Amino acid sequence: MQIILRVISGIAKGHKLKTVKGSTTRPTSDMVKESLFNIIAEYVPDARVLDLFAGTGNLGIEALSRGARYAVFVDKSRECIRIIRENLIHTRLLEKAEIIQANSIEYIKKLSHTDSKFDIIFMDPPYNENLIVPVLDIIGNGDIISENGIIAVERTNKNEIPEQIGCLIKFKDRKYGTTSLSFYKHSSLCI
After folding, report:
1. Which CATH superfamily is domain 5-186 in?
2. Distance between CA 62 and CA 118 in Å, rounded?
């Protein structure tokens, strides 16, 4: 069964998004995506967005449609990169995007040696690879999230993650069936 994805709000509302055939990606459902964007709504206008493990680009494209200034999409799969580009062209948002074919962990390690900072970071890594904690650790120590930025992590309910990872504090958790969304910010004690 192939999931039909669409942009649910903003300037590209209603545009259908292509997905990758097979089971290599697990796109965020419209219900979970709507909930996620209700929670982060105040962060989206004019935001710089980093979409790690981007898959189809679903989350970054939704952010751009809702008024984010710029988005960087990172995925190691050539097929995903092709689909992200096609989705950005279809939604007319390509000029606000950068698409990087790379391992997400290696990419954020490189970013930590630059001045790049993001207001929103989306993470939707493969569920069974235990990547969430290592990636959050690199983000927290790498100074790539802006002072008031937010990190949104999609995960399976079976994959518990800590309340604090370095200077990052989990401030919200929501469950939707077998999926959970967790949200992190910098601790005020670390800033």
Report:
1. Vaccinia Virus protein VP39 (3.40.50.150)
2. 16
Residue 14 tokens, joined: 């209603």
Max Cα–Cα distance, the chain, nearest Å = 47
Buried b vs exposed e over 108-125: b needs ≥16 C-beta within 10 Å? beebeeeeeebbbbbbbb
Bridge partners of 153, per DSSP, are 123, 182
Give the list of residues 6+ apart from residue 83 with CB closer than 8 angstroms, or none.
Answer: 18, 19, 20, 55, 56, 57
**Residue-range domain boundaries for the chain:** 5-186
At a CB cut-off of 8 Å and minimum separation 6, what does 87 contact? 17, 18, 56, 57, 58, 61
Instruction: Give whole-number Cα distances, 149 to 32, 67, 73, in Å.
Output: 20, 16, 17
Per-residue pLDDT of the chain (191 residues; tens, 9 = 90+): 456 788 999 999 989 998 887 545 556 677 888 999 999 999 999 999 999 999 999 999 999 999 999 999 999 999 999 999 999 999 999 999 999 999 999 999 998 878 889 999 999 988 777 889 899 999 888 789 998 899 999 998 887 889 998 889 999 999 988 889 999 998 766 65
